Amino acid sequence: MTRARGTGLAARLFLAQVLVAVAGAATLWLVASAVGPTIFHDHLRRVAGAVSAQTSLHVEEAFRSASALSITVALLASLTAGLAVSAYVTHRIAVPVGRLAQAARALAAGRFDTRVTIPAIGAEFATLTDSFNAMASRLESIETTRRRLLADLAHEMRTPVATLAGYLEGLEDGVVSVDSATVGVLRAQTARLARLAEDITAVSLAEEHRLDLHLRAVPVDQLVAAAVDGVREGFADKGVGLFAHVGAGLGSVLADPDRIGQVLTNLLGNALRHTPPSGSVTVSARVSGSRDTVELAVSDTGEGIPPSHLPHIFERFYRVDRARDRAHGGSGIGLAIVKALVEAHGGEVSAVSAGPGRGSIFTISLPVSAPEPTP
Ligand SMILES: Nc1ncnc2c1ncn2[C@@H]1O[C@H](COP(=O)(O)OP(=O)(O)OP(=O)(O)O)[C@@H](O)[C@H]1O
Ligand SMILES: [Mg+2]
Does the Cβ of 330 fall within 6 Å of ligand 1? Predict the structure, then answer.
């Protein structure tokens, strides 16, 4: 809905100048009429002594018309000056304000690439322009992420939904029978959809900082031992070695043990998936050089990651080999969850790999928990 536009800035400025000039002229006229004649008479008496009534009338008339003339000339001069000032101010202020309003309208209409450049006319305008441009680029990046997320989500859902639809059709037509294989497929596809929904919720909550983190001092060796114990069976089944090297005296980190458990489980799950039998995976921990964080690393001797893919693997739905990784059952959200969870703790994540076939190392850093003061 658009509101009535009303009078423009230039007209309002000019009206204000007219009011000031008229008020000034009226005041001048009143003061001149109230005190002018007395002072004038006084001066006249001192200079010319007593004058006849006719002379006095004549001189007073001359005084009044001189005053009226000068006040009228002054009023016209100030109105001309007012017009010039409003034209100048309009050009300097109303034009940029108009440009900003136009840009705001474009933004409201969904053109998020809109930016404004405004000439240097004061700190307030500079702040306004900077804030507007910052708001526009934030909206633009949110919009890009939203579009990509929706597109990826639709893409991820398509396969399981198509499989489910195909099987249901087959069941209806009697081509497929309800045996354990069919039920297995249906279960796997519904589980995949359910996991997709869970993962998307987890990553959104973490990225929007809406997670309830129960932070406490957790001994590093306990964190690692719990994560390793949880995945030991899977490693043994595949024949991949699993080792933990946690030096003594590492102390504690300030963390939510369940969330960091989830992070380590994700990293260990990836390492297991991408390491062939007889390879190995090692979890190690060390205090950083600055001694304010602990670095936990999960390294494997597996297939490695090509350098061109490394910068993207923490993005949602990113997989190095889309077809193969999806066949493994992954939807490419695991590392996005890892990143969001670690960053919610105030930590950082990184990945390095010497290239295909030469293993990968995923490192997370977590803030060290300050030791309890000794009584
Ligand atoms: N240890 C690893 N070795 C080699 N490649 C890896 C390793 N960890 C992750 N990747 C690559 O990074 C991609 C993204 O990993 P991520 O954990 O986000 O997704 P995913 O494991 O495919 O699916 P999800 O974790 O959602 O089940 C993987 O598809 C894989 O290509
Ligand atoms: Mg994963």
Answer: yes
